[in-house]
User: Fold these one by one.
Assistant:
Number 1:
Amino acid sequence: MWGKTVSVIEELVIRDLSKTFISSQGALSVLRDIDMQIPQGEFVTVIGPSGCGKSTLLKIIAGLDAQHEGDVTLDGEPVRAPGVDKGFIFQEHRLFPWLTVEENIAANLSLKHREVRDKVDKMIHLVHMDGFAKTYPRQLSGGMAQRVAIARAFIRDPKVLLMDEPFGALDAFTRAHMQEVLLDVWLQNQTTVILVTHDIDEAVVLAQRVVVMSAKPGTIRTIVPIDLPYPRKRSSTAFLELRREVLNQLEAHMVEAHAVISAPLNDEGGR
């Protein structure tokens, strides 16, 4: 594997995964023949054009969508429903407005237990929220609220953490800071992370592998290993070369997609 030493046990395995939506207008193939093996503790980012099925893929891995072809297994067990072994962070923080920062992080865990209190305090420190334990979500900025959401997800020690464009609504400066916070927490916990993004820099700065997808239907175009140490310098030659490789793959897909759309119809209505 790339980037760091990981267990030889492939914790998350996706085999021949396909997803089709049926509507009054017919069948729409969203994902086709997705195959991935992600060892415990690996950080993977998924990038691709809008409509390539990135979010659908996360929902299937999370057990939120069981209507698909193919298999998804976690620790050898089929994924058929949501569970505490799978965490999910959305673009919106989804904190409980009536709970404080520490209560949100500990949600469903009792702060009366010393072990829980210690874990919450550690997470508050890891996400740079010292001094805000008693603060309510309405008093937080977007970036601060998302830090709390990250802490809440990691404190439960999920086997895999799924993140659907968690920093998409943040400004560039806050986004870069949040990426640093996420890496700090991940390096401490070594949880398997799959993060969907539209941002090439984000994909390369965070991941050990970048999964580049094509659309209509969503397929894996290529997987780019990012064999760079953390933290990564965005201006380094190695970083820029890997960024260019991911960009080239995305641009090649757009050229191919445009060629298909522009191709003339044959006598039978096909291309």
Note: Helices lie at 54-62, 101-105, 114-126, 142-154, 172-189, 200-206, 237-262.
Number 2:
Amino acid sequence: MPDFPKAILALADGTVFRGIGIGATGSSIGEVVFNTAMTGYQEILTDPSYSGQIVTLTYPHIGNTGINREDCESAKVHAAGLVIRDLPLLASNFRSERTLSEYLKAENVMAIADIDTRKLTRILREKGAQSGCLASGETDAEKSVAAARRFPGLAGMDLAKVVSTRAPYAWTEGEWALGKGYLTPESSRFHVVAYDYGVKRNILRMLASRGCRVTVLPAQAPAAEALALNPDGIFLSNGPGDPEPCDYAIAAIREILARGIPTFGICLGHQLMGLASGARTMKMKFGHHGANHPVKDLDTGQVLITSQNHGFAVDASTLPANLRVTHVSLFDGSLQGLARTDVPAFCFQGHPEAIPGPHDVAYLFDRFIQMMQDRQAQHAQA
């Protein structure tokens, strides 16, 4: 049995949980949220959308399949910390390269196990997402609660420019295939410029696998830089933090939409498209984090099981006349999808690329492809 140090998770409301530290030694502060997905802990940890958040996983056994380099959604862990119930002593999978605990230590990420995650989740559901402090090797409750209360929260925090790439780059890697790894498509039909507000790799892979040559731009790149690349379409990625402070992105998106270029947004990109179109956003009580969220497609009447990860949402009561609601959450009725009525642009709050999660809404990528194809056909006839 490994000798794990004592650890503590303290919430801003004064609640304290004691357990064992399974990651790096030290302390970390952030917004404590819960995720109900049963799989995909590696992808969750490396999703840039979790920057500034301490993630509680409600499924009790985390770490069963270890860690491998292929399943990371970015170059590093972005979550501020990890909270789990039970860490298996044996990681077993044919692709596993090291254990979860080894990975967390190598990434200098604080993590705690052996706490009552059901109790913690009930607190977060009843009181909303809270600021917290996760400390390993340090068990001073009073000090940890004070540290948690110093965290200002994510409202008003612009994290997209923090996690974004610093320089443009080309992406050509396609989706993973058993025995072959990640494939590189032989040809491309479309050139897509993707704004990186904290993009997940699998989003780019799904675009590449559908015949897109992808150029990734930093979050703060002006519209002129994107338009100069003469793209067939613009993609607005997922990302962390509050969308409203991202004035640079809102201005760029507004200019791009005015040009009539096919545009598709996911997660933070969805919220930014809403803001650029004249709507407002709001902070949710505890957000949506999981891989089992039912969403209704209002155009088809279908109910889709989706992957979700967001703490902000577009306020449906503020929509201008040129925005049409396309999807709603069946958990709380919140807005999940929008389409512009005057230009070829649409967006979705959840994660159609999943990883982890179901692929029920992967058809949105195909809709984006069709939108670019239609525009090419129109230009050919002109």
Note: The chain has a mean pLDDT of 96.
